[in-house]
Amino acid sequence: MTCLFCRILQGEIPSKPVYSDDLCYAFSDIQPQAPTHVLLIPRKHIPSLAFATQEDTNLLGHLMSKAAEIAREHSLEGGYRVVLNTGDDGGQTVHHLHLHLLGGRSLAWPPG
Ligand code: AMP
Ligand code: ZN
Question: How, if at all, do strands 17-20 and 80-83 pair?
Fold first, then answer.
């Protein structure tokens, strides 16, 4: 198994857990870009949002609502950003769909 995030899900590569259930896993980003930088991944290997299908609709909704729940737990009342980099032009470097939850500082817009 070569996918980095699948290896994290298997426990082959250590990670700092934030949240876990039967559909998804959240952990701290190894190179945080904000005081809170959590990655939220489905346990199902989907290479990117571009590969998601109709049958993933509930799973994607689950990820979004969990991102909001984790944001509440991290007291991000001032706001936060959920990012889903997709493909090379989208800046995706790990090819297992993941949401970035960024917060704890004022974030610039538009991104680079
Ligand atoms: P992306 O560029 O959207 O594909 O995001 C990949 C993210 O994974 C980056 O923010 C990396 O810092 C993060 N990352 C890479 N390897 C690890 C790891 N072993 N543990 C936690 N986060 C990682
Ligand atoms: Zn994977």
Answer: unpaired
Domains in the chain, start-ordered, CATH in brackets? 4-103 (3.30.428.10)
Distance in angstroms (rounded) separating the CA atoms of residues 34 and 28: 11
- Look up the pTM and report it: 0.97
Q: pLDDT tens for residues 50-71?
A: 999 999 999 999 999 999 999 9
Closest atom of ligand 1 to 33 CA is 10
> What's the pLDDT tens digit per position in 13-44?
999 999 999 999 999 999 999 999 999 999 99
Give, for ligand 1, the residue of 16, 31, 51, 83 to mutate: max count of ligand atoms closer than 8 Å to Cβ: 31
